[in-house]
């Protein structure tokens, strides 16, 4: 691995994670979303059902 690649990975690792929000069409879409790369770990995603059947997804990235 080159020095530039190592520095790039270190800067990504040092970047702070923040909570983000998206709305998914249904529970299955919400689960598929948080399992995309990079998959969320335990405690890094929260789901909330909406009255219209869609799902709010709060995720840590």
TrEMBL record:
<protein>
    <submittedName>
        <fullName>Uncharacterized protein</fullName>
    </submittedName>
</protein>
């Amino acid at each position: 691995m080159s020095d530039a690649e190592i520095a790039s990975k270190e800067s990504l690792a040092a970047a702070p994670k923040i909570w983000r929000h998206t709305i998914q069409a249904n529970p299955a879409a919400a689960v598929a979303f948080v399992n995309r790369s990079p998959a969320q770990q335990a405690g890094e995603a929260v789901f909330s059902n909406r009255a219209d059947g869609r799902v709010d997804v709060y995720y840590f990235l």
